[in-house]
Specification:
Number of domains of chain C: 1
CATH topology of the largest domain in chain A: Spore Coat Polysaccharide Biosynthesis Protein SpsA, Chain A
Oligomer: heterotrimer
CATH topology of chain C: Rossmann fold
Strand order of the largest sheet of chain C: 2-1-3-4-5
CATH class of chain C: Alpha Beta
Number of helices of chain C: 5
CATH architecture of the largest domain in chain A: Alpha-Beta Complex
CATH superfamily of chain C: Response regulator
Strand content of chain C: 15-25%
Distance between the termini of chain A: 33 Å
Chains: A alpha/beta (475), B mainly alpha (365), C alpha/beta (133)
CATH architecture of chain C: 3-Layer(aba) Sandwich
Number of strands of chain C: 5
Largest interface: A-B, 66 and 72 residues
Strand order of the largest sheet of chain A: 3-4-5-2-1-6-11-8-12-7
Number of strands of chain A: 12
Chain lengths: 475, 365, 133
Amino acid sequence: MGHALFALLIQRLIFFYFIGINLGYFSLNVISLFSIMRYTRERVLNKLPLVYSGFELPISLLVPAYNEEANVSESLRSLLQLSYSEYEVVVVNDGSKDKTLEVLKADFGLVLYAESIPGQLETKAVRGVYHALEYPNLRVIDKMNGGKADALNVGINYARYPLFCSIDADSMLQRDSLQLLVQPFLEDPKTVAAGGTVRVANGCQVQGGFLIKSGLPKNFLALFQIVEYLRAFLFGRMGWSPMNAVLIISGAFGLFRKDTVIAAGGYRHGTIGEDMELVVRLHRTLREAGTQYRITYVPDPICWTEAPEDWKTLKNQRVRWHQGLSQSLTLNWSLLFHRRGGAAGWVAFPFMIVFEWLNPVIEVFGTLFMLWAAICGYISLPALGLFLFAAIGVGVVLSLNALLLEEMTFHAYPKMRQVLLLFLIVLAENFGYRQINAYWRLIGLWRFAARREAKWGEMKRTASWHSPVKVEERG
Amino acid sequence: MVSALSSDITLRLALWAGLASVATSLFLVMLILCMRGALLIRTRHHARFLTVWRPLLAECLLALPPDIPRVPAREAIAFFNLWNYVHESVRGEARERLNTVARQSGADALAVTLLETGRLDERLMAIATLGSLGEKSAWSALSRIAAHEHPILSFTAARALMQINPEGSIGLVISSALVRPDWPFSKVAALLKETGADIVSRPLVHALWEADDRKSVLLLRYMKVAHYTLAAPSIRKRLHVTESVEVLCACLSLLEDPVELEAVREFVRHPVWAVRVQAVRALGRIGSTADARLLLEAMGDAEWWVRHRAGEALALLTGGSLPRHLLVETPEDYGRILTLPLRREQSTGSEEEREAEWVPERLAA
Amino acid sequence: MMNLENSGVEPTVLIVEDDEEIAYVLRFMLEREHFRVVHAADGREALAQIYRMDPPALVLLDLMLPYFDGIQIVGMLRNNPAWRTVPVMLLTARAQAATVARALDAGADDYITKPFQPVELMARIRRVMRPAA
């Protein structure tokens, strides 16, 4: 009888967790549905031709590069062609072991330009500052290796403009994306950070760092990730934005106020998810100081990035993300239920802990428990089937909602056939992919708990470019 | 034991949840497919619309076409989109002809209808159209909308008013901008700039004479679009009477003539460093080589920004050719900045101006 | 190269412009004036045209383009012997004097800022194409 009681208790727990998480996601969904609708209506006039007035905010694009010799020039060329009134590109060569610097020197006619800018953030030593003769708005900073956070901090030190945008050397920005991403800073001077949408570029036609035509990949892992990214961005972030509780801005594409980030201490050395950690820390420090601020998600600026297409790379990525999430949360623990924490401290942070951070524990052990209970006869097989039915059903609804949001806004995949394929993926991801994802994240959690230092993982490349982007995601 | 778990209410809930999910999923799938179908049909309609109206609008850029069809109500938004796009791409009498086309096709009446009854996006489109048209009859409706609480709606209406009658609405726009923090600074500034310094200078200066410190900070930031000669007296006066650090910074960042050189030199030693930053930058613009020593002194300032800006100002004053005996005295390795041919000289200096708006604002807080 | 003015063939204009609407309007106006129009929507297409087509009577060039910007294209054009003397007229949304100056330095002949006056544009096109007159 003891076992039965125990089983009942656990089952109840899982059940309430299940209800909680789905209600949570459902609410986010409803919020983002309305905010996206309002957003697209409000922006209807943004499509008219731009007349530059000279009152736009200039932006520094920071591009950390580590062993990127193969593609750094192509991506730089595409970054130099964004349609924005005034911006500069600062490439930070983080002590690459390959010929990244040499390639840049040759392709862009770099000249050494000893410019003394005593930085406000502590970083590894800078070896040289290069200017490009052909491109007055391009500089390359060569520094000792110190990791991505350190490279970004050097970029911040050398950025000329009050706003900086962190970009992975291998992601592709849509040409109008800066113009769109800067809007919150214009509309609300309290804005300190804004994140855009990251999409999976696999299957798209790419040429010389430019996306020619969107499309769906053949690889099914990449297909699963397309749906994941849609969920994560379209409602995972849009839902939090109206509450000013966006805790994640992708490292591949975010715009920040330089002085605010410097005041918060810049990117943190030695963290795995330095992008997420920074945003959570911004929330914490600004809340603690009682400063009025806004951190916003903007749905239409789009950055394309390649998702891993093999199990091993994907696994490493997910394990690392979850370690990063763990660090971001634990390093900023005092935001949780802080007196002035607002929605970030009282809603998003606890939500993130329970439904993102600890989710793999519940998901993996919950599944194992149900199997055990079924085997031991505590749950009948039909009952088990029923629970599975409900879990998968709700998951499908949430994913379909993301597809609906996509259909309402961007419809990036224009063919009817593509829509049907995405429906299939939404269904298929529930049989195996989500469970494996939960398991990977559990490993991440375990590694974090075991305080294993994750290395700056060098992901295996599936094509000439790729990028680890952070997606908060449940299995 | 089996029944302990399975006859549970949770089981019934799970069943409902599952069934509800299936139903919702089917509904969503249908919805998405319908939306996609509608999208395809819309795209086709739009293509047809473009084959009619694109050549018509293009033709009227050079001469008025003889036959102008009427715009059906369901194509109103598509028409406004295209028409406004072309309208904003051209200048001069082509705009007049575009206006004639809009009037003869009945699009003006459609805009008036949507202005009152449309959804948010339709209203915005209608407002923009009436503004481009210079539709005087919409004046009172637009004035009402300009006071609406929605920031984008009200600002778009304000812009339309300015297009219809700039002299008559500049007062309203300035006074609204001063009390509406939700109107983006850059958009208001762009509107003032597009309206033109001839029209906006005097009202801005007038408002500045009357304004308290809080409002003058904003007015001074807008003052960049005004004629400097008209604005200068009020700026100079503010410079001497204000107690506010922010106002002081804003005034200093605007100075373009050496009339106040003596005062600026004193501000280089002001106790608040945000003021010192603006003072050294002003010296870089209006100072003489006699100020090199003062700037060198500022390069030893306790605050990084003052040192940095002083270095740049010095480079600007001396054109990157600081006398060697001064270079030796330069603290730390700032000497190197001074020998740089600054990029700013090529790039119009707008970076400077805009950073000026950002830095002190944060520092004074 | 052949003398387009006297050959009896309609003179060709290459439009390099990524804004679909503006490209349409330009093509329409030029065809009205009996020009043959070739359109390149980005820097790469423009570059391909430089190698593919006979030098046109005029290049109408937007400054901000994907792949290569207008300044780079002017440079490449001027490096191609056949295209060295083709008149290049810039269309620019940027009212930034510095950028225009760089493009003129690179070898462009004239420029017009967006929003543009259609009548003025056509007049300038006629002038640029008959530099001797």
